[in-house]
Specification:
- By secondary structure, the chain is of the alpha/beta class.
- Helix content is 34%, strand content 17%.
- A seven-stranded mixed β-sheet has the order 2-12-11-10-7-3-4. A two-stranded parallel sheet has the order 1-14. A two-stranded antiparallel ribbon has the order 5-6.
- Helix 2 packs across helix 6.
Length: 362
């Protein structure tokens, strides 16, 4: 095994240059003779780090000035509860668009805190191919305080290629698995949230981008750790934050900016996905079950339609240095997560292995 490529859906691989810098600075950050993990989160140097991270992230993702960026804990699951506690207002109800497992989990959690309507927006045809059936909801959204959706379903590999039209309603998006994969118009959203462990950094920190006019409306019973106003006023530090994860995110932001920003990132991601999907479309051995207009650029799912062959594929791929290709237990099969940090060489190595495996097992 000469090269290992990590196709994990999360925690996912991080840019090699970022890990090398963290390794170099691990015992002596900013000339302090200590690790960044050992300094006060309220000290001058760490406060400068978080200010720089905010500035770099704004530049990278083109975040308008009227949005707050919160660096929180609890993962995306924590936000499943925090969002209704902070955003449910006079209308008393939210709409959840269900496109798969994680959007369904968000809806299930929200029911503990408010009334919701849940709308299934996918269908499966007679061949088992899944597609998104609707993206315009402007005719029904006036009755809701917000509309929630998941931009990219990590398990199935279903992705919204356009922002849903929700009229004047507040649009909330779980972007955990495709944030920073391409440019988007932030102004179309009231709130965006994402666990860091796919494109932003390591597990343990969660980013929330929230429009300022939506802050300060949390219900009285909202715990302070989930209250956006409390967190915004405290620089996301009402308690000790995950400082090392925050630091690593800051390095990722600088790394992506140095590479040319999201225009460069998007072109690279498109090239990787197109190469892998083209191979799958030309194969009679493997199948992808997502309609072409809704195929994820980040998570490519495929199967031999034989459980024993799938298990053999995963075992032999792992032995060849192609790690974490086993599909989620909800779906089975295989899944190649090709986030920002995955180089094109990793996709090419996967395709070469897939072709060899198909010839040997056809």
């Amino acid at each position: 095994m000469t090269q290992v490529y990590n196709f994990s859906a999360g925690p996912a691989m991080m840019p090699k240059a970022v890990l090398e810098q963290a390794q170099k600075e691990l015992l002596n950050w900013q000339g302090q003779g200590t690790s960044v993990m050992e300094v006060s989160h309220r000290g001058k140097l760490f406060m400068e780090l978080i200010a720089e991270a905010d500035k770099d992230f704004r530049q990278l993702f083109n975040i308008p000035d009227n949005y707050k960026i919160l660096f929180l804990q609890g993962g995306a699951r924590g936000q499943f509860a925090a969002i209704p506690m902070n955003l449910i207002g006079a209308k008393g109800k939210a709409l959840y668009l269900n496109s798969g497992h994680w959007s369904g989990m968000a809806a299930k959690e929200a029911r503990n805190f408010c009334e919701i309507d849940e709308l299934n927006v996918t269908e499966k045809d007679e061949n088992g191919v899944i597609s998104i059936t609707r993206t315009d909801f402007s005719d029904i959204t006036e009755q809701y305080d917000y509309v929630h959706y998941c931009t990219n379903e990590t398990i199935t590999g279903v992705q919204f290629k356009e922002v849903p039209n929700v009229g004047n309603a507040v649009l909330v998006a779980d972007m955990s698995s495709d944030i920073l994969a391409s440019r988007i118009d932030i102004s179309k959203f009231g709130l965006i949230y994402a666990g860091a462990q796919k494109n932003l950094g390591p597990a343990g920190i969660t980013i929330v981008i929230v429009r300022e006019d939506l802050i300060g409306k949390a219900r009285q019973a909202t715990p302070s750790i989930w209250n956006y106003e409390t967190q915004a006023n405290a620089d996301s530090m009402i308690n000790t934050p995950p400082t090392f994860a925050w630091y690593l995110c800051s390095l990722v932001f600088k790394h992506l900016l140095a590479e040319g920003g999201l225009d460069t990132v998007e072109k690279r991601n498109q090239a990787k996905a197109e190469k892998l999907y083209q191979y799958l479309d030309n194969s009679t051995f493997y199948r992808n079950y997502i309609a072409k207009p809704n195929r994820s650029v980040m998570n490519v799912t495929f199967s031999t339609d034989n459980d024993e062959l799938n298990a053999k594929f995963v075992a032999e791929a792992t032995a060849c240095g192609l790690q974490a290709l086993k599909g989620h237990k909800v779906l089975g099969g295989m899944r190649a997560s090709i986030y920002n940090a995955m180089p094109i060489e990793g996709v090419e190595a996967l395709i070469a292995f897939m072709d060899k495996f198909a010839k040997e097992n056809a």
